[in-house]
Amino acid sequence: MKGSESKKNDIISWEEYFMGVALLSSRRSKDPNTQVGACIVNKFKRIVGLGYNGFPDNIPDNDNKLPWGKSSEKDAEGYVQHKGLYVCHAEMNAIVNKLSVDITGCTMYTTLSPCNECAKLICQLRLGKVVYYERKTEDKEGKYKAAEKMFKEAGIEWV
Ligand SMILES: Nc1nc(=O)n([C@H]2C[C@H](O)[C@@H](COP(=O)(O)O)O2)cc1CO
Ligand SMILES: [Zn+2]
Description:
single chain; alpha/beta; Cytidine Deaminase, domain 2; two-stranded antiparallel sheet; 26% helix; 21% strand; binds 2'-deoxy-5-(hydroxymethyl)cytidine 5'-(dihydrogen phosphate); binds zinc ion; metal-binding; zinc ion binding; EC 3.5.4.12; hydrolase
């Protein structure tokens, strides 16, 4: 039997496609607790940056040099054993890995809503829109609210 000659219509949307790529990227993360992925897309619907959360480059991650835990205690050498001191967020990595000098107006798809530090980067690089998959609900320190405020004030669409 020959295949159909008319086009297939039941395909995934651009939004599903780019968020799907962000979700796939998150699966590279070695964080035992939370895996996040981010995908930056330009106005021509080309992917210009990908990232997931992990420790900085060139630090071997198989011999526990840095902690994956969230303790406020210090180890024998006086280093606080909290991953937050070391992890590069998915959004930051997607920006650092960008393939294009100028990402003004681009859209970032992220599997988790951005923190205030990543929001600062998103503002500085003048992205136009941030689309998140899951929203961070716990916000004791006000990081996510601060991120939203920056997006609002900078005119960055946030959905
Ligand atoms: N938007 C985000 N992008 C990220 O890459 N992360 C990373 C940082 C940590 O590696 C992990 C959060 O760990 P936990 O607090 O749920 O155990 O996710 C976290 C957030 C939330 O702000
Ligand atoms: Zn962040």
